[in-house]
Write a structure and sequence with these properties.
Helices cover 45% and strands 10% of the residues. The chain is of the alpha/beta class and 374 residues long. Bound molecules: SN-glycerol-3-phosphate (G3P) and calcium ion.
């Protein structure tokens, strides 16, 4: 019959039990860590918003009513407007500084900078035919002869039923040259029109209108005028992840979100932005695998030329525009008030891993010491 030494077995059993508890905790910690990394989209807690880039620029002539209508039919939560101001002070929706790429018509009216033309001149230009020439597979007869819309025409058509993602653009401050404002009065006129079409309050409350710009001065001007308006700081593709992250603190002073180029987005950037309660809306997505990758990284929405594709990628997670805007506003407020998920800025590195390794070493040390004493 075998005799057991109870005086030495008891501490060993206690130590083994302690080790089991610690190792079990480590396994749990690793699981939690992995889950947090895998569900980055939950960090701000809002929906992933589908922003129709220039409407649906991949399927219809950009920044036309036809493009906006189709984007909304295809599931866009927001339709985007790039703003330019005509010589006579009217805000029109056009991406480029010059008319040449997207318009056809009398050369004296439809070439050169839009800022040097009156609205009457601009309205003689056809902004649909270029699309049929360039994308014959998506061409439609109805696109020929489409006109450049004014911002007011867009507001009049869609009212408070649609969400707008409006960019203030400046001739003097294109992407890659932020920090200079052309003092065109664009911001003032935008706010005046938002008031006229009852959009200012619902922008602040429900994010019905998001205002974006590459130019910090433009956003700071709007923030000074009305700090309740939700603003998004865009970053050109000339930025690096490092320079972009270095600016987040400043952007957080006036913006609720950032719009980086897709190539600059990684998990570290998303976590750093979320740690400051900044939503992340990269531009401009075309392919579905890229959309999936960004969603996995935890972005809060994205600009796409194909809202129909993003709608398909989101599947059951897609919400209607109303819920997308309100849900995003609520998630932002919860984060800022501290009631949302707290996200430490680790630059994408989990702090649980080094903590877990330390605890593991400690418990093994305890076990060895106990066995030696026995
Ligand atoms: O505003 C987001 C995205 O549209 C930025 O790129 O040049 O198309 O205005 P861009
Ligand atoms: Ca834009």
């Amino acid at each position: 019959m075998k005799h057991h030494n109870h005086r030495t077995e008891a501490p060993i059993r206690r130590s083994i039990a302690l080790t089991a508890v610690v190792v079990g905790s480590l396994v749990a910690a690793f699981c939690v860590s992995g889950a947090a990394a895998a569900t980055g989209a939950d960090l701000m807690g809002g929906p992933v918003v589908n922003v129709g880039h220039r409407g649906t620029a991949g399927l219809a002539p950009e920044h036309t009513i036809a493009s906006y209508d189709l984007a909304l039919e295809d599931g866009a939560d927001y339709i985007e407007q790039d703003l330019r101001m005509t010589k006579d002070g009217v805000l029109v929706v056009l991406h480029d500084e010059d008319l040449d790429r997207t318009t056809r018509g009398p050369a004296e009216n439809c070439t050169g900078p839009v800022g040097e033309k009156t609205l009457e001149q601009v309205k003689t230009c056809d902004v649909g035919s270029f699309f049929n020439e360039r994308y014959p597979e998506y061409a439609r007869d109805g696109y020929e002869g489409l006109k450049i819309p004014t911002l007011e025409e867009v507001f009049r058509r869609y009212g408070t039923e649609t969400n707008y993602y409006i960019e203030t653009r400046s001739a003097d401050a294109p992407p890659g040259n932020p920090g200079v404002d052309d003092s065109s009065g664009m911001e003032e006129e935008l706010l005046r029109l938002m008031d006229e079409y009852s959009l200012r309050e619902t922008a602040a409350e429900n994010w019905r209108v998001l205002i974006q710009s590459f130019v910090p001065a433009s956003l700071e001007e709007i923030h000074a005028e009305d700090p309740s308006l939700p603003l998004v700081q865009l970053y050109s593709d000339e930025e690096t992840g490092e320079t972009l992250r270095a600016d987040l603190e400043a952007a957080g002073g006036y913006a609720v979100g950032i719009g980086p180029s897709t190539d600059d987005v990684d998990r570290g950037l998303v976590e750093s932005a979320h740690a400051r309660c900044l939503a992340v809306h990269p531009y401009t997505l075309v392919e579905e695998p890229d959309m999936r990758e960004l969603i996995d990284l935890g972005v809060d929405g994205m600009f796409t030329d194909f809202p129909n594709r993003l709608e398909g990628v989101l599947g059951g997670e897609a919400v209607d525009g109303n819920r997308a805007a309100i849900g995003s506003a609520e998630a932002s407020r919860a984060c800022l008030s501290g009631t949302g998920t707290e996200v430490p800025d680790t630059g994408g590195v989990s702090l649980l891993l080094p903590a877990a390794l330390g605890a593991l070493l400690l418990s093994l040390g305890l076990l060895v010491a106990t066995v030696r004493r026995a």
